[in-house]
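worker-3 :: picked Glycosyl transferase family 1
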Amino acid sequence: MKVLVVNNAAPFQRGGAEELADHLVRRLNATPGVQSELVRIPFTWEPAERLIEEMLIARGLRLPNVDRVIGLKFPAYMVPHQDKVLWLLHQFRQAYDLSEAGQSHLDFDETGRGVKAAIRAADNACFAECRKIYCNSPVTQNRLMKFNGVPSEVLYPPLNDGELFTGGDYGDYVFAGGRVAAGKRQHLLIEALALLPNGPRLVIAGPPENEAYADRLRRLVEDLDLNDRVSLRFGFHPREDIARWANDALACAYLPFDEDSVGYVTMEAFAAGKAVLTVTDSGGLLEIVSEATGAVSEPTPAALAEALARLTSDRSLAMARGAAARDLWRNKNVTWEATVRRLLD
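worker-3 :: tokens ->
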């Protein structure tokens, strides 16, 4: 069986979706009787009218010698094929929930509103021709049903290299991994730490979305006199280093705005037996992050400082919640073997 995985590609940007696509192809190729390759279609969303061209590019592709297509993200999942399965990571949210929340660049003029309508129509046509639709979380599933009226099944992404996240010592720092971006709000962690003179150290590690935000964090650390307590490790790191930081942390932190899924940072922390600090508007994380498995606060420096102090001042509390986090994730039994079976069914 020849299986083509299709995903979009914003040049020089790499995150969880790209990692998932690579590992999915690797796991498919490890399945007897299966050959798999990844096709990444370049994608940009500005100017708004460019989105029409991007959809037409995807719809205009033809895939000979392919038995099944697995589509992941907009607009790559629009590639036509007679045997297509979607593992929906997220739609183009500016045409859906972000528009509803008044946060979409498509709502400023008639051109943008026309593009939004075209996206919804093209999505509905694509979904109607799919053999099966899976979503990466209940958040994505509910959004698909709310805006498109399309039913789906939840298929959680497994950890790509779970064998690395085995846990370790409980150190004196909080680890914040993942992409460094304004939408991930690492600045709030730094501002919260400044309110805790006796608080833990903070390690932030990951590739910056842009240099402007990286500079903002550098200036913040300098201005708040936190050079001896905050370690900024910008860039791509070997997975062994990411695992070591997570395994030896006292706790982990992840503050995305309205994440579609529980997020790889959360999954890695839970697998390593670490409690996770997040915020009330983090979206999909709240499915598994709670006061039983970490701490949840309002997305303000003062509230985060209080939650951070509560979680890290008592090591036994952090350890107990980390153990509960590990048990919760293990009980979900999310494995690559089961995932591949469902995608090939």
